[in-house]
Specification:
The protein is mainly α and 165 residues long. It has a single domain, classed as Four Helix Bundle (Hemerythrin (Met), subunit A) (Up-down Bundle). The protein is globular. Helix 1 packs antiparallel against helix 5, helix 1 runs parallel beside helix 7 and helix 3 packs antiparallel against helix 7. The chain has a two-stranded antiparallel ribbon with strand order 1-2.
Length: 165
């Protein structure tokens, strides 16, 4: 099971690298242009992605007081991209270097944003983090196309597999 999660964490980092590079190549006006979507802009969608990965990371590391990146400062798009990449690198290293099969199958005790406590297997949390990221990368790609991006990266898992082998 560890091998699968190592591959998913590595894929997550790879895909985030591709999408953030493409976002930073776009005209800056596109980043904050309001559009009809879940979060209203490329910038806000990226912030949500970073916030979510950070919150789950903190839960996984058993932090009691969660720090949400976007509420602590007003990052530029470059800051947000770098923050997401750094967070993804932490996930990749954690899964590869820290987790073993016993830890992956153990239960994580955490509270959601409403303060309700849950007991979740670590593997379910990992699947959620990586699936959530794929979902929102898809939104980012759609928003980029709507805004006329010249270069939209392919971030499908199979593309990662082809380049990783």
């Amino acid at each position: 099971m560890k091998q699968l999660f190592c591959q998913m964490a590595s894929y997550n980092l790879w895909a985030h690298q591709r999408i953030t590079h493409a976002l930073l190549e776009m005209d800056e006006a596109c980043w904050t242009r309001e559009v009809n979507s879940s979060f209203g802009s490329l910038y806000k969608t990226l912030l949500h992605l970073w916030d979510a990965e950070s919150i789950w990371w903190q839960r996984m590391r058993l932090h009691q007081q969660l720090i949400v990146p976007s509420t602590n400062f007003q990052p530029t798009m470059k800051d947000a991209c770098n923050g997401l990449l750094q967070q993804s690198l932490q996930w990749d290293e954690f899964v590869r270097d820290v987790l073993d099969d016993a830890a992956i199958n153990s239960k994580l005790v955490y509270k959601n944003s409403s303060g309700v406590q849950f007991f979740q297997p670590v593997y379910e949390v990992l699947m959620h983090v990586f699936n959530h990221a794929s979902y929102h990368r898809g939104q980012l790609i759609t928003l980029m196309r709507q805004q006329g991006a010249d270069s939209v990266p392919q971030t499908d898992f199979i593309m990662y597999c082809r380049t990783a082998s």
